[in-house]
Design goal:
The protein is mostly helical. About 45% of the residues lie in helices and about 0% in strands. It has a domain of about 70 residues.
């Protein structure tokens, strides 16, 4: 086993792409991630996993014959959706001081 020093590191030219993420598919991956975020912000009560599955099915229907290696795993896209939703939630209250609106007509049915 040979070790390489920092001086022997291989530098790739800007025109070459990594073999793991072909350049042709990165646009689809970026589009999928953006769609996940947009849909997660609009459909608050839909589960993140369901949103991801629907988007992946819609976006990959046209490319069923070829795999798209640049798309992140569905689990990671689910985390992206949940993280994005977390930013939209209001922060937790720091104190319990608030005003009660006594003029509002609220009926409580405790025994029905």
């Amino acid at each position: 086993m040979t070790k390489t020093s920092p001086d022997q590191s291989v530098k790739m030219s800007p025109n070459k792409t990594s073999p793991k993420r072909p350049h042709c598919c990165t646009n689809i991956a970026i589009k999928v991630k953006a769609l996940v975020k947009d849909t997660a912000s609009e459909e608050i009560f839909t589960s993140a996993a369901e949103i991801v599955n629907n988007i992946l099915l819609e976006q990959t229907e046209s490319t069923l014959t070829t795999p798209i290696p640049a798309i992140p795993k569905p689990e990671n896209l689910t985390r992206v959706a949940n993280r994005y939703r977390q930013k939209l939630c209001p922060s937790e209250p720091t104190d319990l001081e608030f005003e009660v609106d006594e003029n509002r007509d609220v009926k409580l049915d405790l025994f029905s």
